[in-house]
Amino acid sequence: xSISSFIRRPITHFANKLLQKASIGLTTRVVHSxxxxxxxAERKLSTRTNSLSCSSGVLxxxxxxxxxxxxxxxxxxELTADKELQLQWDDGxxxxxxxxxxxxxxxxxxxxxxxxxxRRTSVEDLDIDIVPLSVSVDHDENSCTVTWPDRHESxxxxxxxxxxxxxxxxxxxxxxxxxxxxxxxxxxxxxxxxLHDNHALLEFMERLRDVGLVxxxxxxxxxxxxxxxxxxxxxxxxxxxxxxFKVENKRRPSDLAFSHQKLALHTDARYYNYTPGIQxxxxxxxxxxxxxxxxxxxxxxxxxxxxxxxxxxxxxxSSIYLDYTAVGTDFYKYHHKSSWKVIMTDxxxxxxxxxxxxxxxxxxxxxKENIHAWYKAMKVFYNIMNxxxxxxxxxxxxxxxxxxxxxxxxxxxxxxxxxxxxxxxFLDWDDVYSRIxxxxxxxxxxx
Length: 447
Prior knowledge:
The protein contains ten helices and 28 strands. The protein has helices at 9-22, 99-104, 158-162, 191-196, 198-211, 225-233, 299-309, 311-317, 368-385, 429-442; strands at residues 29-32, 35-39, 45-46, 51-55, 58-62, 74-79, 84-89, 94-98, 112-113, 118-119, 134-138, 143-147, 153-157, 172-176, 188-190, 213-217, 245-247, 263-266, 278-285, 294-298, 321-329, 333-341, 343-345, 351-354, 392-394, 401-405, 409-413, 421-427. Strand 23 and strand 24 form a beta hairpin.
């Protein structure tokens, strides 16, 4: 999500039930261990620590409550016996700040480079038992100054300190789950708009982040267009196929994608330890005969459905690692190896990635007692993804470009026999997230 959003075993079970009730607006309260959820009039599911908010097929994960208001003036500062600075604002808000944290987060020019937002100091030189000599409040500047034993002074703006809550930082990520219904309302953008308009580019990237699959239209039917989009967004991710690759029927293909064969649903390049996050595919020429249709499935939605319908299969796919290997010569000679679980989860137990690709799946090295269970679970998962409710299937037209989340969306194609030419490249999510923040900051929008 970073990208990461959703699946903790207790969360998923009840979230799906609430999703079912969303369309009829029922009021529901679910209590399960640490999770207390209510379905309110705005159709948002909320909890104090971890939550999923659901609205019209949208899941929003929140890792803390909304930050308190940062308005108000600093009124009083006091050094306490338990090595914390206590501050009080004129609206009654009170918070405490450990001394060692204050010294480590000094924002003076000697300790912090504000231009590039990095520390100049090191933990190596930090006295973890440090105690200030004094503290003072400047009501005119709405700040406080802490004086340390070496006479160094740390001035803190009240607004900066008010934002600090000493609990897990809020992280909100909304994802729109979809199935075959996406075919009729897939997010689409004009190619020229995202090349020349930062507002359009920002919307394009944020829809890609939230939906996972978007379409660019009116793209010139010639090579080099994916590179223009990639450079407008961030940087091309180099792989063993080069910075840009041609997807066409080759006599001696270095990858099954470069042939006429059917490609089952998969995510690309799982033989990398750091897999490419985003793929762009531009249709330059479409085959006029039967076949050559593109297929897509939302791996997160399918995983949620799997967890609800077959918890044992979900547990198997989120527990067992598979080995992936790629050997060959293309842009350079390569021999890649890596291991992934089909369903990867983050530190919260929520889905962070869906990984699978039959062609590069290596010889299975799991224990014998797990082999049959794994194959059975994978068959169930495949059937869910390929069901008529979940599979998106269409024929790309010349001048269209699909852009999709390679950590979430599985893609494939039907077999064809003829001249079909696409051009593709990869991006990394870190670069795209950075670009989103930069543009939002330039446009005066919250980050």
